[in-house]
Task: structure prediction
Amino acid sequence: MSSVSHFQTPPELSSSEFYTNLIERCQRYQRLRPGKVLHAQLIINGMAQLTHFASKLIIFYVECKQIFHAHHLFDKIPKSNIRGWTVLIGAYARHGFHKEAIQLFFNMQKEGIVKPNQFIIPSVLKACGNLHDSVTGASLHSLILKQDFITDPFVTSSLIDMYAKCGHIENARQVFDGSDGEDLVAFNSMVSGYVQHQMVKEAFSLVKKMQLLGPKPNVWTYNTLISGFSQAGDDQMLVELFQSMRADGIEPGIVSWTSIISGFIQNFRNKEAFSTFRQMIGVGIYPNSFTISSLISGCANSSNVKHGKEIHAYAILIGVESDSYTRTALLDMYAKCGYIYETRSLFSKTSELERSSVTWNTMIFACANNGHGQESIELFNRMVKEEPEKVDHLTLTAVLTACSHEGEVELGRQLFCEINGKFKIRPRLEHYACLVDLLGRGGKVDEAYELIKNMPMKADLFVWGALLGACRQNGNVDLAEIAAKNLRGLEPESVGGSLLLSNVYADVGSWSSAAKVKKMIKKNKFLNFPGSSWM
Result:
């Protein structure tokens, strides 16, 4: 699909259907270059200005993270067309551009040409929820009441979801109680809100109450409860939920079983996860790619490559090895276990169409963390050349890590400066931590400290931990004391920073200072958490 200009419309499809299918295919696989060629073809044919195609192209550009192109196309649509506003705001909200969604909504209100409707409001509420912006969310609540949208079930459920995500579970419950209580979508949103806040007992109580007064729980309701109680580690409730499902005429399916397995994995209960997996097979329910990827993730977190390889073989047997979720989980598992050959092999098997940001990032991290820093940097350069739209904040963290391990100070500096400019990504704390570590390894500890002082946000444990590690490597006692002091302020119960400071003193021969720090540790009874690290 390198070019679309030579394609002939199949006789069974109209020209409109043909181009629509091509746009959706480019969107699905995030194929920016072929999509641009297709856009050019539509311009030549005089079809690009049609609202139908403009809307499809807007969604395609947002999917490819090309916000400028999406907005540029939107600006060509008449502002009196409510569909254009609905498409772009919805696309922004769905694909994580939440600030842009809210700003566009404000622009729409400012224009005053079209009024918000029940299709736009849920998208803006979703954006508010993901940004934890309860102020804008509350103002939308007022608008909903004024426009009488509260009777729309999707608006009500979106409002409940927004308040829950913003941490205002009481407000979410007030909205739910104010509804007629008969809509299953709003009911499930409230159950989900409780589960998000680890209030699984309250969620279960609501379900029991609604069984008597309102809508009957569906499979989504039960799966949400199963996920919540599984993460809470309440095995007895899981048994009860399975019984309740069957009593309501709902047989637990693959999603129900996978939710339990995933909950066990998240709680590092791999033994129970594999036991549940065997039970599931025993009752005749066979896994999908989500089940397999959950089990592989458990193997990755415990570095259990033996079980990971067994699950890999099973994935091949049932035909899900090539699935994107399974492939990504396998890449991550082999990378974390240090099996770089297998990681490379899986990456090379993944077609260009199937390579997502996660696939690239996993491979770049794998090389960076397993002694192949130059290969990691080469992969990054290849990604930037072939699929620049897929570079995200994790990609940059991975390549900065590689630069640090390889001592590529100048390249690391250059990449850090390009984060905001070339890649249009706001630098995060992890990027600063990587640069501090890079400068420290390069012997530039004073420069690293100046960087911390000029950061636009407050340095966290990882940033100060990187500086303290660099101070030990370079024997800089003065800055080590500053870093250790800040670490104690951020995590007073941890002994890590103080122990590392005592090692700095010992390294430079200041035995009395080292002994003094160790005495302070014993006096204050600091807690030590084995296995934790800032690096």
Notes: Residues 15-28 form the longest helix (14 residues). Residues 431-436+443-535 form a domain with the Serine Threonine Protein Phosphatase 5, Tetratricopeptide repeat fold (CATH 1.25.40).
